[in-house]
Amino acid sequence: MKKIAIIGAGPTGLGAAFRLRELDHDNFKVFERNAYPGGLCASFRDAGGFTWDLGGHVIFSHYKYFDSFFDGVLKGGYFTHKRNAWIRSKGRWIPYPFQNHIKYLPKAIIDECVESLKEKRIKPRGRINFKEWLIYAFGKGFTRHFFSPYNLKVWGFPLEELSVDWVGERISRVQLKDVIRHLLSDTDLSDWGPNALFKYPAQGGVGEIFRKASVILDKKIRFNSEVVRIERKKKRIYFSDNSQETYEALINTGPLNKLLHFIDGCPKRLLSAANELRHNGVFVVGIGIQRPCPSDKCWMYFPDSNSPFFRVTYLSNYSPRNVPDSNKYYSLLCESAYSKYKKEKKSEILNNTIKGLINSGIIGKFEKKHIVSTFVFDIDYAYPIPTIKRDMALREIQPALEKMGIYSRGRFGSWRYEIGNTDHSFLQGKEVIDRLVNNTRERVWGNG
Ligand SMILES: Cc1cc2nc3c(=O)[nH]c(=O)nc-3n(C[C@H](O)[C@H](O)[C@H](O)COP(=O)(O)OP(=O)(O)OC[C@H]3O[C@@H](n4cnc5c(N)ncnc54)[C@H](O)[C@@H]3O)c2cc1C
User: Tell me, what CATH number does 304's domain have?
Assistant: First the structure.
């Protein structure tokens, strides 16, 4: 029975651990640097009784295996919500997705969107970047008024550096005839996409899923154990407290670029390939307000420059237990990306977020005095950026790691945004174990 070490107790690491347990393969251990499980899917409850997630997390799954894990750990303790998502732009509310609802915009912008969609657009030849693709797919009007400013805010990178491989089910395409039909229609078309319905734990925030999972795994997880060095020839990992462990197969779920720097004598070509991997950070700001919630919205997107955030969630609408008393309090979770191109300061983000909420009409100036709780969390690795150069770097790195007996999976372990959601990550963990134990193919990480 191979000895398996897993770095990280986030969804990927716990997906791997759960599968090992299911297969009665007991010779494994999960090493987690934090004192808590869940990674980016962790939640925190503050002294005032507000629960905060690390960014707006909603659970929608592509896999039965993840569904039955979710049901198994929460045992029905969750809500299923119908998405109620909006875009706040130019002082107006536009139902999501934007491209189905331009009738809510000023006439000049509607005309610009429709006219540019009418123009003959030729798909650029060869490998196109995300900016070129947006103009080809949506025309200059939609790109200028929504896609470009919004995506710049989320990614924090020039759109010319991004590929289009990740777009898939994440952006709804439109045809001119449909845009015109929607303009004339009385009804909104808001139910597009895989997260039109989503699940959320009844208590404990999104982190409840992996907190419960970690209880089941119990002593198989060693917390406060940060891997800082890997001796690949002796198959040994070293921790920041100088302790060490051996392994026969190593599964890494932390950031891939950091992993390479842990490996003794890591070939230079791998380190330079890793220099091509890009990521952004996100400041998560929670605002707890002592007033009944004024809205039934789930979340809102913010393309305009009068706020630092790209998305704000009414977190108290996901579960009343996210606030001390849902008749008297509500909570907002605001996400602002940062990068070398989009600079934000941690020391200023709380104030700038509150200003942005007032500028966008989410809270009134008078409501400032009703803020009873705040939460600021710096996610330094938030979005793995799907750059044009990414896949070449991954093709260099991943096979070389596997030759060393190291399997890097998950949101930042695989560095592939398109398979970087919670369900994808959990499945990546499960499937790498199936491969190691039963020699089966990895479908999610291996593209089906
Ligand atoms: C802002 C934001 C919003 C999101 N919204 C959604 C959503 O709505 N729906 C959805 O499905 N997904 C969402 N996600 C994605 C979701 O959070 C990820 O899919 C998931 O957390 C990835 O799991 P993971 O285990 O691969 O990585 P992580 O969650 O990052 O876990 C990795 C773990 O490894 C540990 N670790 C790292 N390095 C070391 C080391 N050297 N030694 C020991 N331990 C280490 C870390 O502490 C961490 O616990 C969102 C993510 C972000 C950032």
Answer: 3.90.660.20
Report helix, strand or coil for 217.
Answer: helix
Span from the CA of 54 to the centroid of ligand 1 (angstroms): 9
User: Do residues 319 and 202 lie in contact, with contact meaning Cβ atoms separated by under 8 Å?
Assistant: yes
Cα(199)–Cα(444) distance, rounded to whole angstroms?
21
Copy the structure tokens of residue 204: 């404990």
The reply to whether 447 falls in a domain is no
Atom of ligand 1 nearest to the CA of 414: 26
The range of the structural domain enclosing residue 303 comes to 44-61+71-83+195-204+279-384
Nearest CA residue ID for atom 21, ligand 1: 40
pLDDT tens-digit readout, 279-296: 999 999 999 999 999 999
- Closest by CA to 331, choosing from 319, 341, 340, 342, is 319
pTM score, whole prediction: 0.97
133 and 262 part of one domain: no
Could you tell me the distance, in angstroms and rounded to a whole number, from the CA of residue 360 to the centre of ligand 1?
Answer: 30
| Pocket residue to mutate for ligand 1, from 411, 414, 415, most atoms within 8 A of Cβ | 411
Model confidence over 357-416: pLDDT tens digits? 999 999 999 999 999 999 999 999 999 999 999 999 999 999 999 999 999 999 999 999
Final residue of a structural domain among 369, 384, 399: 384
Same domain, 246 and 294: no
